Every structure is written in structure tokens, then in C-alpha cells.
Amino acid sequence: MGTETSGAERWLAAIVESSDDAIIGESLEGVVTSWNRGAERIFGYTAEEAAGRSISSLIWPGNEQGDEDLLRRVVRGERVDHIETVRRHKNGTKVLVSLSMSPILDSSGKLIGIAKIARDITSRVAMEQSILASSNRVRLLTEQEAEARAASLANQRFRQLIEDAPDGIVQVDGAGMIIVSNRAAERLFGYSHDELIGRSVDVLVPDAYRARHAEYRANFVKANVARPMGIGLDLRARRKDGSEFPVEVSLSPVTSEAGVRVTAVIRDVTERRRVEEQVRSLQESYMAELKDRQREAERLNHLKNEFLASVSHELRTPLHTILGFTDLLGEELEGTLNETQRAFVRHIHRDSEHLLGLINDVLDLSRIESGGLRLHTESLSVREAILEAVSGIKPHADAKPVEVRADDPGDLRVIADSVRLRQILYNLLSNAVKFTAVGGSVTVGAEGNGTAVRVTVTDTGIGMSQEEQAQIFDRFYQVSSKTGGTGLGLAICKQLVEIQGGSISVESTLGAGSKFHFELPRA
Fold it and tell me: Tens digit of pLDDT for each residue in 277-289?
């Protein structure tokens, strides 16, 4: 049995010695107890040098904690398999190893040492790193190639965009030499592509401006600010044949390693200028005609005012005479009239007053619209104006009969022309009485409204629809043709209120009466 055991041990020792891996035995105190030729080759120490040496001499500085953790795992009875770590060669260089560790137990199972197998993976790791570096280089070259292809494609597309642009495009370098041109520029100026490239941009400038063009270019490059197209400059360009044409030019400077380059986009505006000139000529012709018509309208308006003034004088003079004589006849100073004669006199008087009112309305509207109406504004009592207007309309209202009431407005005062204020009130009250049925009522009152005074005339008359309210202040508009009149009264009221700095409005419901409001500046 002893002989067999001794043979097995020699056989095992031979295997250990022939292994390329380092096989090391160490005590629990970390002292080397066995060391094979693989360990000599990997770490540089001979078996005699390693025996009795502390295993810590192989640990790479800074890895002490990691090795202590591995040792504790083995002491607990665990195995450690193929941990890649760094060890120190005898000459101080790094050795990359794949380390396995297992406990050594005696026959009773007691831990008496640790067995370590370390495989040198330095060459393998170096090869992997070399392969990785090669792969990275290939990937980088592939990416660079892809970027180069993308840049080339982008450049081709950009060039195609420039070539297909409807406007002429040229790019010049710092010396003013053309380095890029597109087909539109070649068509505009009459040069071929080869004739433009490398040529001074000054050849595209008319002779009258060429002497100072270099100075303009230098100032533009110095300012380094883009100039957009259509900023109102009157620019012209020169073709190869010497002819000139109007253009708009936008300029964009770009600074690169090659220096400042300026891109110019050039648009031929010949047709647009022709149209603009045609429009300008039409406008001037139209304005001249408009002025002629305005002068003619003013002349006719002046003639109209003179005619109205003359006619009104000629009409009002006999009407006043007729009214005067009807008043005398009505007094019966020259003899008593029978009832039929009295009726005739009343009819003549009433119709004469109506005709005189129509003439006055036409004259007033004419003077207002021509700006010939003169106002004499002053501070006026609203109460007095209302009472005077009510007193004037009351006989007409009583004859219908319609009740007319005045609400006391207190001490309110307005800035207005006294004659025109009474005219506004009388017109509104007369209109309210006219459209209010027998037995109805009309009320007038006023209240303060900030910096204005608001006067309201309310009636219980026939009212108006929304469509009628929208037209009620138009000239010659009448809600009902049965009531008579010229349709000028409310139009005159609106004009008189507005030229005194006020406003007028209406609220109404069909069949339920109306409210007319007007405001004038408060005194």
C-alpha cells in the first residue's frame, strides 16, 4: 500500500511539474510551501527562492484588499475560479493571470493550507486589446468614410440647390475674385461658367460705379454684417454685352480658414420696376383726375350753396308775407270771417309753416355738410333748454292730443350752441309726438354721465324694428310715409350733435315706443 501511495505521489508531482500554469501551495500564514516550474516561468523566482517566501511579494501594489477578500472566501471553504487579476514579476513588471484558489485539508478535514493555480494571460489580453484597437480603428475609418460620403453627398445636394436657384448666385473671395457661380448668374450676365470663375466681380458692376466698388467691398467685409435683399437701394448690374439692368442684391459674409468669402444673391427686377412704374403712372393720373373732380365737386357744391341761399331767400320772403297776412286775416280786423273762411286761413297758415320748415331743414343740412354752419358755444342750462322746447311743442301735442312731460334735470349745464340745442330738442320732441298715438305720452329728461350730459326723449309711439333703427339717422329716411315730412329732421339732429362733440343713439321696440339719447359735453 505504501509503495502504491508513493508511486501516485510521484505521478502527481510529475504532472504538477510539467504544467504550464503556476501551481503554488501556501500555508495559512501566507508562506510558499510548494512552487512548480510553471510558477518559475511566470513569476521569475526559482523554487529555492520562492520556498519559505511570503506570497505577498507577488501581489501588485494596491491590490492587497482584493487578495485578502479572496483569502477569506477560501478560509470559509469556498473555491475561487478564474479570477483575472494582476501579479508582480520578480523584475517588477506586471503579469496578468487567471487565478483559481482552493483549500487544502488534512485527513481529518482540517484546513492546513491553500492551493493556487495561476495561468499567464498577458499575451491573450494583449492580443484582445490589439484586436479591440484594430476593431476601433476599422470602425473609426468606417465612420470617417461614412462622414466623408455624407459630406460629399451634402455638398452635391448643396451645389444642386445653388444650380437650381432662380436667382443668380456668386461667391467671391477676399480679393473679389469669383469662386462660385450658378446657371442663373450665367444667364443674367451672359458669361459662361468658365468665364466667370476666377474673374473679378467688378466686371458685373456698371462703369459708373466700378471705381468705388472695391471700397464698398472692403467696408462690407469689415462690417461683417449680412445685407438682406430689398432694403431700398437702387442698384444696377452690367452684362457681358455692356447693357445694364436693375437688380436687388443680398450679401452674406462667411469667415473660414481661407478668409472672408461673400455670397451674393442677385435678382433681376426689370419686370417689377416696369410694373411699378406703370402703377406709379396710373396713380399719378388717378390722383390728378381725382383732384380735378374734387375741384369740380367743390365748385358745384359752392354753386349749390349759392343756389340754395338764393332760392331760400326767394321762397322764404313770400312765405313770411303769406304767414303775416294769414295772421292779420285771423285777427279779423277788417271784418268778421265766416267759419269756412277761418278754415281756409288756418289751412293756408299751416301749410305755409310746413313749407317754411322744409326749406329751413334743407338749408341747415346743406350748411352743415359744407362746413358753413357757424356755432356759438357757451355754458347753457339744460333745464331752461328743455322747458323752452316743451313749451314750443305743447300746442302741437295738445292738438292731437299727446301728453308731453319734462323731468327736472336739476342744475346740469352743457357746452353747446343755444339755437342748435333748442333745434335738436324740438326736432326730437316733434318726431316723438308725430309717431305717438292719441292719448300717448312723451317724456324728456337728462342726467349726468361723467364728463357729458345725457338727454333722453321717450315716447309710447309705434316703435321701430332693428332694420329701421340702423337707418333712422340717414338723410331722407322715413319710418312711415303716412306721417309726411322730408326725412331730414333726425339726420340734422345727428349732424348737430356730432359737430358739437357729442353722440346720438336710439333704443326701440316695435309697437312699444322709442328712446332717443344724445350726449353733449358737460359744463
Answer: 899 999 999 999 9
